[in-house]
């Protein structure tokens, strides 16, 4: 079973400059064997609106062109991008030119950039690849123990850094490429999320499973410390399983997902951003 939703960041009524902004996240979910629910292929991309132009279009370009087989290494990612980057660059260079010299220069200097996380189902296992700070979380539950893992970040502090990005006019770097795999057996939830949601999920898990580290965060004078402090103040700890079950229910409709995200943002426990989530119950 799969649920997937996305929504733009919360826009204040007085913020007229962004009234018509695009959601810069994109996702794609494909199931090649609907009858047997096999061979899933999923991609999520977070366009980097803070640099260059046309981030929303570039993130959509990435997810819509995801290959059927997993990337073996960073070179295979660069080779894949080589099959479509020129067409994208030529098309959007013309759009930038029509917008004026400032836009044309910005696109020439900075291009378009986005993160990418991709997941492929292969027989009884999943393989994943990440470039940037969009995350995959894996939750397994059995009679003895529960296990929660998040990649590529496992610490809240890692969200401070500027992420690696796939840029239309640059080679991908080895340092930005991560891949992994895991067995399907005993996995209860697989969650793909853009960065703001990833950080919130990790903080909620730490609130229960890493209480001492979480408490240290709540007194830290930082952006993430402020988020942790607010969570500690207004949200009760909840088991990871129950938290993810609740998120699954919220993901049933776009309206409930958007309402939940905006409520969390207005409470001060979720950063301002576009929000995208794909949840799989294998």
Write out key terms for the chains shown.
282 residues; Phosphatase 2c, domain 1; 5-stranded antiparallel β-sheet; alpha+beta
Overall description:
With 282 residues, the chain is of the alpha+beta class. It has a single domain (2-280), classed as Phosphatase 2c, domain 1, CATH 3.60.40. 37% of the residues lie in helices and 27% in strands. The protein is built from 9 helices and 12 strands. It has helices spanning 55-64, 74-81, 85-99, 101-110, 195-209, 211-218, 223-234, 240-250, 254-267, and strands at 2-7, 25-33, 38-46, 113-114, 116-122, 125-131, 135-141, 146-151, 166-167, 177-183, 187-193, 275-280. The strands form 3 sheets. A 5-stranded antiparallel β-sheet has the order 1-12-11-7-8, with helices on one face. A 5-stranded antiparallel β-sheet has the order 2-3-5-6-10, with helices on one face. Strands 4-9 form a two-stranded antiparallel ribbon. A hairpin with a 2-residue loop joins strand 5 (116-122) and strand 6 (125-131). Helix 5 crosses helix 6 and helix 5 packs across helix 7. The N and C termini lie close together (6 Å). The mean pLDDT is 93.
Describe the secondary structure blueprint for this structure:
Elements: E1 2-7, E2 25-33, E3 38-46, H1 55-64, H2 74-81, H3 85-99, H4 101-110, E4 113-114, E5 116-122, E6 125-131, E7 135-141, E8 146-151, E9 166-167, E10 177-183, E11 187-193, H5 195-209, H6 211-218, H7 223-234, H8 240-250, H9 254-267, E12 275-280
Helix pairs in contact: 3-4, 5-6, 5-7, 6-7
């Amino acid at each position: 079973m799969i649920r997937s939703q996305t929504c733009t960041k919360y826009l204040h009524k007085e913020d007229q400059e962004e009234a018509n902004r695009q959601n810069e996240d994109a996702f794609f979910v494909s199931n090649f064997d609907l009858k047997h629910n096999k061979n899933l292929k999923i991609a999520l991309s977070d366009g980097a609106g803070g640099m260059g132009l046309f981030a929303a279009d570039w993130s959509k370009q990435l997810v819509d062109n995801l290959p059927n087989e997993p990337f073996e290494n960073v070179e295979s990612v660069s080779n894949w991008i080589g099959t479509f980057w020129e067409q994208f660059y030529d098309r959007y260079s013309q759009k930038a030119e029509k917008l004026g010299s400032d836009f044309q220069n910005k696109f020439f200097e900075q291009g378009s950039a986005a993160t990418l996380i991709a997941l492929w189902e292969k027989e009884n296992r999943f393989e994943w690849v990440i470039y940037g700070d969009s995350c995959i979380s894996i939750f397994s539950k059995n009679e003895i123990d529960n296990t929660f893992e998040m990649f590529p970040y496992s610490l809240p502090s890692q969200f401070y850094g500027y992420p690696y990005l796939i840029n239309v006019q640059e080679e991908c770097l080895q340092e930005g490429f991560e891949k992994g795999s895991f067995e399907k057996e005993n996995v209860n939830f697989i969650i793909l999320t853009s960065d703001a949601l990833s950080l919130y999920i990790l903080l909620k898990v730490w609130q229960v499973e890493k209480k001492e580290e979480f408490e240290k965060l709540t007194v830290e004078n930082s952006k993430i410390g402020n988020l942790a402090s607010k969570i500690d103040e207004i949200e009760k700890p909840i088991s990871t399983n129950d938290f993810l079950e609740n998120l699954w229910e919220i993901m049933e409709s776009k309206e409930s997902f958007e309402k939940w995200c905006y409520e969390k943002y207005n409470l001060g426990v979720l950063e301002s951003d576009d929000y995208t989530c794909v949840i799989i119950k294998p």
